[in-house]
Amino acid sequence: MKDDATFHDARLQELAQRLGTRAAERLDVERTAQAVVARLREQARAPARPSVWSQPAWLKIAAALVVVAGAGVVARGVWPARPGAAAPVETVDLSDMSAPQLRELLRSVEQPGAPEPVSSQDVGLEDLSPAQLRALLASLETET
Amino acid sequence: MPPAEPVAAVPSPTDAALIAAWQGGDEQAAAELVRRHARALARFLAGAGAPEADLDDVVQETFIRAFRAVATFRGQCRFRTWLLTIGGNVLKDAHRRAKRSRVVPLGDDLRSTDGDPHERAVAAEAEGRLGEGLQQLPRLQREVFLLRAQQGLEYEEIAAALGTTPGAARVHYHHAVRRLKDCLK
Which residue of B has its CA nearest to A34? Predict the structure, then answer.
């Protein structure tokens, strides 16, 4: 520090070294130490549980999904669907349906006012959704 | 009977050893670190503008934050220097909260009741002007000045703690000294 010309300003140095000394001397160090230990113990007993979304990795993943979804929406707006392209077929997973729902579905197929059963000659079986397959099966059973 | 071997003085554990012990669950290691550094931290905080009434709270909060983040301390500087920089952050947050709640703390000389009032006022005057001058400095200049002039640290140590270069720390210090000299004229 001796090479530091400005540090030879004795008055400033003396004042700086005295600054805060009286306040620091009045600090009860032992009491502070015990208080810090008590607070640390308290915090250890009740550890904070950060939510999943407060973790950076999850935030990054969520942000990436939002970007991808947003890009998809924009792309659909920019490039309209091709004229020949088939509309997406809405399928129903029978395994997700409850027993009452399945019974209701079968009843609706068997009712006279129900839509025309699908004929096996119209389409390939691989094109049918599970619900359509179920309806087809029911119509075959009524024919026999 | 052979002469008794001289009892070797037990060296006090280093800060690094105490930190490791605390991380292993030793509460007394944490208490020892507080005992070792609390007064220097309090001096630094008081010099940086912490009101004396809040000093104990700010010191405690600084240690709590330091122990919580101790895994991020890589020994780039001494533990005490790292602690002082955390204290600077805690003080900044406390000032922000105080501004919001519009609490105006009394000065040391007005609150203190011990000693001769006239002597106390004379002794506090120059210190008070330096304190006021420090409050007008940008934070980095203030902290570099205190770390250098009050705590006696080298520029390399200050730079490592504040994430800057020794040259930049030197420049901050010189700017601070120039402005503080103007305050004391």
Answer: B31
Task: Spell out the residues 6+ positions from residue A20 whose beta carbon is closer than 8 angstroms to its own.
Answer: B42, B43, B44, B45, B46, B47, B150
Put residue B109 in one of left, alpha, beta given phi > 0 → left and psi -120 to 50 → alpha.
alpha
> Which of A97, A139, A141, A94 lies closest to A121 in space, CA to CA?
A139
- Distance, in Å, from the CA atom of A58 to the CA atom of A50, rounded to the nearest integer, reads 12
CA distance A21 to A27: 10
Residues of B in contact with A32 (CB under 8 A): 34, 38, 56, 59-60, 63
For residue B29, give the nearest of B44, B46, B43, B17 by alpha carbon: B17
pTM of the model: 0.61
Q: What is the pLDDT of residues A46-72, one digit of tens each?
A: 755 555 555 667 777 888 888 888 888
Residues 6+ apart with CB under 8 A from A123: none
Amino acid at A6: T
The shortest CB-CB distance from A15 to any of B34, B38, B130 is to B130
Count of A-B CB contacts under 8 Å: 114
Q: Scanning every residue of chain B, which has its alpha carbon at the shortest distance from the alpha carbon of A40?
A: B64
